[in-house]
Description:
This protein is an alpha/beta fold. Helices cover 21% and strands 19% of the residues. It has helices at 58-62, 127-130, 172-179, 255-269, 287-302, 318-335, 371-378, 385-398, 400-406, 432-435, 470-475, and strands at residues 7-13, 46-50, 65-67, 87-91, 95-98, 104-108, 114-118, 149-156, 162-165, 197-203, 206-212, 239-245, 276-282, 306-309, 357-360, 366-369, 414-417, 424-427. The chain is elongated and about 135 Å long. Mean pLDDT is 79; it is low at 432-444 and 449-459.
Amino acid sequence: MATFVDRVTLYATAGKGGDGCVSVKREKFKPLGGPDGGNGGRGGDIVLVVDPSVTTLLDFHHSPHRKATSGHQGYGDRKDGYQGDDLVLGVPNGTVIYDSNGEQIADLIGNGTIFIAAQGGHGGLGNLALASSKRRAPGFALLGEPGEERTLSLELKSVADIALVGFPSAGKSSLIAAISAARPKIADYPFTTLVPNLGVVQAGETRFTVADVPGLIPGASQGKGLGLEFLRHVERCVALVHVLDCGTLETDRNPIHDLEVIENELALYGGLEDRVRIIALNKIDLPDGQAMSDMVADELRAKGYEVYPVSAASRAGLRELTYAMARLVQKDRAAAVVEERTRIVLRPVAVDDSGFAVKANADGSFTVRGKKVERWVRQTNFKNAEAIGYLADRLAQLGVEKELFKKGAIAGSEVRIGDGATEVVFDWEPTIEAGAEQLAGHLHRRGEDSRLESTWAQSERVEVEDILSDDEIAKQWEYNVSDPHTPKLSPPITKQESEDGDAK
Length: 504
């Protein structure tokens, strides 16, 4: 059974928001006290957090489907439903998260780093929150939004400062066991190391981490062997240490050839060209190993490498090698850019941004897309006629109907709102503004109740046109207008001089 897993697929489903409550307060001597339905609770999130006690993605390998709890629906008496519990999942340090399209969306480094894999749905509003001066007794409530569903790929890249690479049986596991407290499996056959091993090394005042990667062989870039599968674990390292076997019994191998083969595979893998290389000529405790080390050391130094003859068995040369690693780590840490606190950038919506878009399709239908309108559709209970009318009013107020007119929609046109499983298709009837107040045969306006005082017995104001009769026109000699039936005062009379010079 697998004990180390570094790549898994996570199917995360957040909790659904609770539905709003439809309730009317009833008390003695007060049969209808008004709406008092509470809001639904918010669904729980799925949260990934870096946990130092977790070193593998094995739990996700066995249980890839994770779901958070949903929020509860609202209660009467103005009580909101309780929220769903967040599902917190621990992941190893260095976990990289990709979306379903293969795009990297998060790189979790550092204990306690948090990433929300899926957000819970918002709870629906109860009829108490939907009440207003024009809608005094709503007979409906909004539904809770479904939780977010995401398919994520989790990939573990170990956080190591130094990586040991080399052929199988080159002595990498023995070397990491000699310089750290790590205790990997060590045997005298190839591919003893099946998973990467990490060890902490102390060199003077510098402490750093060393990773032992399974051995590389020719053709690893085409999937042969195990090394290429785990090379992602050395992508974060500062330097690579080539562990070359100077005591191999294979006649067709030598340290120079092994170095060229490994460098070729690293080049095919890509992304490691800028890493500093150090050469560790291992197994110098053997007579043939010491002789081979003396033969190739000068040639390797001539190529620009730092060469350190070592022996994991006798611990010869390990002090010099570890201090060389420490110098590279110190140099990298000194040159590292000081991390500044991330600035929160606010990007408000443009003033002329309507928040939706209407598209005319080739088949004569129309598609309405937008976060706001799609959320409204998800929250609407289409079994309630009053809720449908409320949705129609919201869409009309947002300007969806006017935009449909501009795109050429007519009565009976097919309109689609949303996409996927939440898509709603209906035949459009442009009567939202004209007949929205009369719905499903109700004798009162939507959102009002005839049992409440002054909800339907409202007198309408009658405009009376001001037109003078013929008798009134004859009596109103002071009016001097061209059309006597629409009387208008003539300009005021001012004093003027008469023909004989007297003022009148």
